[in-house]
Amino acid sequence: MANSSMPIERLQALDNVEKEIASCIQSAGQALTELSKDKASMKQVESHTSQFLKTLNHVEGELSKHINYLTQVSTGQPHEGSAYGSVKMYKTARHRLEHTRSRLQDLENLKNRALASTVRPSSAQNNP
C-alpha cells in the first residue's frame, strides 16, 4: 500500500461505510413498511431485520477501525503511512542545530572581542 494513496483509500473506505449506512436505513425502513401492512409477512420482516442487523454490525466494525486509526494518529503513535513523527523530529533537530550555530557564533564574537581588547592595550604600551 503506497503512502500517497493511503488517504484516498481511507476516504474510499469511509464512502463505502456511508453507502452501507444508507443500505442499513433502507432495510430498517422496509421492515417497518412491512410491519405497517394489515397482513405483514413475518418472513419479509425477519429478512429485512436480519439484513439491517448484519449491515449495522459491519458498519460498526468499520467505524471502529477508523476511530482506532484516528486515535493513533492524534496521539502521535507511529502508524502505517505516517511521517508526522519523523517530520517533527527533523524539525526539532534542525531547530537545535540552528540554535547551536547561533550560540557558537555568539561565543566566537565574544572570543574575538576579548582578543581584540587584550591585543590593543599591549600594543598601546609598546608604542607610547
UniProtKB/TrEMBL annotation:
The keyword Protein biosynthesis does not apply. Residues 102-128 are annotated as: Disordered. Coiled coil: none annotated. Gene3D superfamilies: 1.10.287.3490. GO terms for cellular component: mediator complex. One of its GO terms (biological process) is regulation of transcription by RNA polymerase II. Residues 119-128 have a biased composition (Polar residues). Keywords: Activator, Nucleus, Transcription, Transcription regulation. Pfam families: Med11 (PF10280). It is found in: Nucleus. Residues 102-111 have a biased composition (Basic and acidic residues). GO terms for molecular function: transcription coregulator activity. InterPro entries: Mediator_Med11. It comes from the Eukaryota. Component of the Mediator complex, a coactivator involved in the regulated transcription of nearly all RNA polymerase II-dependent genes. Mediator functions as a bridge to convey information from gene-specific regulatory proteins to the basal RNA polymerase II transcription machinery. Mediator is recruited to promoters by direct interactions with regulatory proteins and serves as a scaffold for the assembly of a functional pre-initiation complex with RNA polymerase II and the general transcription factors. Component of the Mediator complex. Belongs to the Mediator complex subunit 11 family. This is Mediator of RNA polymerase II transcription subunit 11. It comes from Daphnia magna. The gene is EOG090X0LXA.
